[in-house]
């Protein structure tokens, strides 16, 4: 609504300005008047920004928050109800094995990190969605949504714990309120610039093209980088939460290798500069950097020693479960032995074709390992 007001207000100002005498136009656009207007706007903006600075829980980073906790919780609860109504048909019952699996990991993460002040005040609610999308997300209200696709995708509970810890970290750090606040702050600048564009561009068509270009630049240069920054922070804090809960933190690195491999297979990789999330390669490298610290945290919390067999050394072979060719393993025996059901002496040609199919399959596996797998 504010952007529409800025658009029509700027356009109205342009038509009004064009009717003014030349002397009055020059007076309005004098550098003294422009400087005075910019100073007033900058002063008001700076006062508003400084008066809304807060310290981020856990990381102690200073950030801008435009809402009180009570105001944002109203927004969060409304969003939670909206999500529940939209996803109601996808909810799995509390007796489902997937639900029990997630609840057990969530309880472990919450219990082992109970010393955190935000953990004590947050009320968690878990829902498992019958969706094959590889995704999980958390709302500021404490609602955690996990897709069945993610549960089938991860190789073990340690990887699942890492993902859930990442989502818990988003909630504990108040990233939802921070993202909305940052978007609101950017909108203030966008509205001012939009009003200026529609006020001073000579034609509506030029103003529209300039506005679209400007909004895209803002998204690429401001919105997306800020979102990636919050994702990295949640990765680091989530790894620490998983470490305190005595999970194998090395599996966090494997998870991002797996995601990278999966996206290459699907051809769904997005350039990082166009995405709201860091690339899987960057996230895997970030986790690798903080794994030594996470292992020391496990030792401080008297966790059982990690296995000497580092799972990162064997993740290459465990990736085969996401290859589309794995179905070939089930069909190959049928192709080879089905003729025996008809005749005890299948033709040499059939054996040759079966061997050729096996050779092609093996070559594809080797090709993926050499050229697609992220070393």
Automatic annotation (TrEMBL):
Keyword Transmembrane helix: yes
GO terms under cellular component: mitochondrial inner membrane
TM regions (residue ranges): 33-51, 188-214, 314-342, 348-373
Any one of the GO BP annotations: protein quality control for misfolded or incompletely synthesized proteins
Signal peptide, first to last residue: none
Sequence ranges assigned to domain Peptidase M48 in this UniProt record: 108-288
Keyword presence, Membrane: yes
Keywords from the UniProt entry: Hydrolase, Membrane, Metal-binding, Metalloprotease, Protease, Transmembrane, Transmembrane helix, Zinc
Molecular-function GO terms, alphabetical: metal ion binding; metalloendopeptidase activity
Obligatory cofactor(s): Zn(2+)
Annotated CDD domains: M48C_Oma1_like
Free-text comment on the cofactor: Binds 1 zinc ion per subunit.
Family: Belongs to the peptidase M48 family.
Protein name as it appears in the record: Metalloendopeptidase OMA1, mitochondrial
């Amino acid at each position: 609504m504010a952007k529409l007001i800025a658009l029509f207000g700027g356009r109205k100002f342009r038509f009004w300005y064009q009717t003014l005498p030349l002397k009055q136009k020059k007076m309005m656009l004098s550098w003294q008047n422009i400087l005075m207007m910019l100073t007033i706007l900058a002063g008001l903006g700076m006062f508003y920004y400084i008066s809304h600075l807060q310290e981020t829980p856990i990381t102690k980073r200073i950030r801008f928050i435009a809402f009180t906790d009570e105001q944002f919780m109203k927004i969060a609860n409304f969003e939670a109800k909206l999500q529940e109504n939209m996803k109601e048909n996808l909810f799995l019952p509390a007796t489902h094995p997937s639900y029990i699996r997630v609840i057990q990991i969530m309880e472990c993460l919450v219990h082992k990190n109970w010393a955190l002040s935000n953990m004590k005040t947050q009320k968690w609610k878990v829902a498992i969605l019958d969706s094959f999308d590889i995704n999980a997300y958390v709302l500021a209200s404490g609602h955690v949504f996990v897709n069945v696709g993610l549960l089938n995708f991860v190789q073990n509970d340690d990887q699942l714990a890492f993902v859930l810890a990442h989502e818990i970290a988003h909630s504990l750090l108040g990233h939802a309120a921070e993202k909305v606040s940052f978007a609101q702050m950017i909108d203030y600048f966008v509205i001012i610039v939009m009003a200026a564009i529609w006020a001073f561009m000579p034609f509506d068509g030029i103003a529209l093209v300039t506005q679209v270009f400007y909004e895209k630049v803002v998204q690429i240069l401001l919105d997306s980088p800020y979102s990636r920054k919050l994702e990295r922070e949640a990765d680091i804090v989530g790894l620490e939460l998983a470490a305190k809960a005595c999970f194998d933190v090395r599996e966090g690195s494997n998870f991002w290798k797996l995601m990278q491999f999966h996206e290459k297979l699907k051809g769904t990789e997005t350039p990082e500069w166009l995405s709201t999330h860091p690339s899987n390669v960057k996230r895997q490298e970030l986790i690798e950097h903080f794994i030594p610290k996470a292992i020391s945290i496990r030792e401080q919390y008297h966790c059982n020693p990690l296995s000497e067999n580092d799972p990162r050394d064997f993740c290459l072979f465990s990736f085969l479960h996401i290859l589309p060719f794995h179905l070939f393993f089930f069909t190959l025996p049928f192709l080879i032995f089905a003729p025996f059901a008809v005749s005890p002496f299948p033709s040499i040609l059939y054996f040759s074709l079966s061997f050729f199919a096996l050779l092609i399959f093996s070559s594809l596996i080797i090709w993926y390992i050499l050229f697609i797998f992220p070393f």
